[in-house]
Amino acid sequence: MSVSRHPVALRLEQQVGGATRLLATVMGLPLVDGIFPALIIAGALTTAAGDPSVAGILQTGLLIFGGSATVAVILAEMDGTRREQLTSILLLGALLIPVAVAEAAVAETIETLLNFEVFHRFAGLVILAVAAKTASSKVGEYLPSPSIIIGLGLVASFNPAGFELIVNPDPMRLLSAGAAAGTGVGFAGAVALFAPRLRGNVDIDLFRFGSSVALGMLALDVLGLMPTQAPVALGVLGVTALFAFDPGSDGADLDEFVADAASPESATPNANGAVADGGDSGDQSDDYDALVDDSAGETDDDGSEPGYGYPGEEESRAPWL
What we know:
Layout (H helix, E strand, L loop, with lengths): L6 H10 L2 H14 L2 H7 L12 H23 L5 H30 L4 H20 L1 H4 L5 H11 L14 H23 L1 H4 L5 H20 L8 H13 L7 H11 L1 H4 L13 H12 L29
């Protein structure tokens, strides 16, 4: 796993503290900053006929409620057993899903106050802003927050002449909203379930950058600029997950060394005091030290020793930070 920290999760961790509260903040942000209601109003969760859109539900759940920040928090921050982690995520889902359904019910009334064509563009812009912030924290410093963009969209598209209080919202829209939030919760639960296998084998930086590209594709879809009805964002996210998973990226050489060292052939010295692979008995100790500390024998510019193979600030593998 990449040694760099996810910028969104790091900033939120400094504010809220605690892995469970951090995860709740990351997954609950779309409900607070207006991204999720904007997607509902823009029709990202339903088809043109008003039926639930499976692709839209999956894209929203995996990219808006899930995404790289959720993966980073679960793999790098959450402690405890898998049962404890899953319990925390399920309790979080018991809160997120009803709130998402409630926002879908209110969004239908809010929609009557807006010029849909104008607000539709702002909904796409807010997803692009989130994608840019996900890809680069430096770029994100110069972009307005999603809540500001949504607020500007509400002001620009405000049309009180069409106001109508809807007390019987569309059940398909409510179902789609609950399913999208449930998809995000299920994604988080799956990550926690397979965390022992994923931890150390997932490049978070690569997954983060790929997630930002997928968000960009979702924004183009919402804006109507993508000349296809295929779920391109889901495809990008799937390819990103495939490339970010590298089972041999962490500890593979050390595990192989330990297995070889435990074999009788390599452990038994010959008459000359050398082990079976031709090296002497001190070579294995040297090799082990080199595997544990890739920077053995090296010094930084200031004369200090680097820290156990972790790249320095100038050598980070996160070019987007």
